[in-house]
Specification:
96 residues, mainly beta, OB fold (Dihydrolipoamide Acetyltransferase, E2P), 2 helices, 5 strands, globular, RNA binding, Translation initiation factor 1A, protein biosynthesis, RNA-binding_domain_S1_IF1
Length: 96
């Protein structure tokens, strides 16, 4: 028997070693967005081709980004969380 409020909890994809939580702050066009990462860095992230037409990314979405090794101010988006999943991450203290 589940406790109240516990029945909606889902196992969410958590960041790998080279990934960081981020929030989309601005749409730049040309499959690029500006993100504010959990490590405090503003990065330009690109939306990979496999996500372009299937997953719509908007401002204030919570995403996982993979910062580039050779250029720290850029990153690739690897995952987008639904609004309910982002709320769950906030409740559990993973993001602000």
């Amino acid at each position: 028997m589940a406790k109240d409020g516990d029945e909606t909890r889902r196992d969410l994809r958590m960041p790998d070693d080279d990934e960081v939580f981020a929030v989309v702050t601005e749409m730049l066009g040309a499959n690029r967005v500006k993100v504010r990462c959990a490590d405090g860095v503003e990065r330009t992230a690109r939306i990979p081709g496999r996500m372009q037409k299937r997953i719509w990314i908007r401002e204030d979405d919570v995403v996982l980004v993979e910062p580039w090794d050779w250029q720290d101010e850029k990153a690739d988006i690897s995952w987008r969380y639904e609004k309910s999943e982002a709320d769950q991450l906030r409740e559990e203290g993973h993001i602000q």
